[in-house]
Amino acid sequence: MLTRARGVPDATRKEILAKARALRPVVPAGTEPATTEDRPLAQGVEALCATLLPGPTSRNHRSLAVLLGQAPTDEGTFLPWPAQTEVARTIGRGQPQISRMLAAQAKVWLAEPALTAVRNELVALLDLRGGVMSAEELAQALMAARGSYTAGPKRFPQAIGLVRAAVEAELSMGGDARVAIARLRATGLVLVGREPDDPASDVTAADFLEYVVTLGNRAAELTGADEPPDRRHRAGEPLPTRQRAVEELRRLPVPAGMPSATDPRLLQLAAIGSNDRVDVNAQGQLYPVGMPAEAALRLSTGTLVGQRLSDRQLRDRVQSRFPRAEQLPGRPTLTNLLAAAEVPLTWHAQDRVYGPVSVPTSVTGTRTVTGHAPLLTLTAVDEVGDRLAAAMKRHAFLAVLAPWRRLGPARQALLTRLSLVEVDVTAILLERLRSLGFPWEAIVAADNGSPQDADFRSLVDLVRHQVMPALRAAITAADGPVLITEAAPLARYGQLGLFQELADPTRPRPAARLLLLPTRRAESATLDGVQLPLTSPTSQTLYLAQDWIAAADDARPRVG
Questions:
Q1: What is the model's pTM?
Q2: Tens digits of residue pLDDT in 123-138
Q3: Tell me: domain 41-195, CATH 3.40.50.10420, correct?
Q4: Is the dihedral of CA 163, 165, 171, 177 positive or negative?
Q5: Fewest CB atoms within 10 A around its CB: which of 129, 188, 402, 429?
């Protein structure tokens, strides 16, 4: 295809695309593929991936499986969107053979109705997210929307492979393709751009992709990402604030017709366009990937001052703010690093926590005064109260962990003290499934938890298409902040993508969204043993101290 061939001038390519679009209404589209027999379309990621490969006896089966992240290399690695040369080297075939195989298979994928739905979904996502997304972002969106039960290292590469198949099928349409791609050097990061629908447009997806790369280069300049690692923020110079970064990025000329991007999305586009040099954190702050640990500590001082934190808690707190900075070391190196970064915390061996530096004891007459930094006197009740108040004020998402045996009082305390609207997931699920009119015995029998069982997969589809819209509607309809309870079934049926959406800091929330989870100890947020897909696990998780629950219980009015 001329639009993808090397050496074709950009102006010529744009003219070809414009003429192809202009001719669509008058040139016959060609022979329509024969309709497939009426059957349900594959929905989940695994079911869709199964439609992409030829039979196991085909000579191309393993090549395509490796190319789509569904089979490992001989070293046991699943490759996310590998280059054709990498697949050829892995399989022992020539790159031209892989290229011809992929071009032929793309035509097959183009005729697959289930993949057509995915192609339309990707186009809609691009329209919503500023016209450009990385392959990783698209894969995450598909897993959140359609569900994926695969665990381990295969999970993400196969989802990226699904995105690749949809994109390759779209590109096989030549001038009618609605997307284009750019593969960045060094990292191999793949960006997908949206072609304008207007055939008279003077710009193409290539212009959008180039703009995002320009954003990334500017973000690298703002954060000093191209400075040698030992010079990055050594003197403690601040990173650009969120507002300044947005203002600087907005100064860059935007291609005509490119979908508008919100401020949070603009920062994300800058990060993905930086080719893995810059990241954006949950607070919307750009920072260089691999930022020195001392700089990360210095820039996190405001969240550490006055706190009493274990070694692990301190490292988790800094990592949650700058997840792709250099990892903090453990003790005793961490103690020296805190001093170098001028963070006023020291190690208290007796309590085994980092806390404020003690003030020397002073004696006045018969009175002895021993002081600490002001916030040292904060109790567990105060800390929980402050975190909850901050979440309510910022309309944040917060996973609230409560001890199993105190789950009932914790629920009552949250509803009473914070005036929350309860959304009971299990109650909505049962009510919605019963309303469908299926024999209840059949639903119970199908609920066997086996992803390989057709009846269970059908039940999962019912939950996805019948229960989840009702649940989302209940959350949206709530007048004020929400407490989501009894949510374990969402883990069983692979619908935790809801919490990924709620926790996404780039999505506006009309009020706070709290999720109550039972736990046996202060640990990471899980539902039915499955990790929650949180954006910032440390800052979006709160262990509800028993003292706070007891205090709330004591404050309740008694009858009689």
A1: 0.60
A2: 999 998 889 999 999 9
A3: no
A4: negative
A5: 188
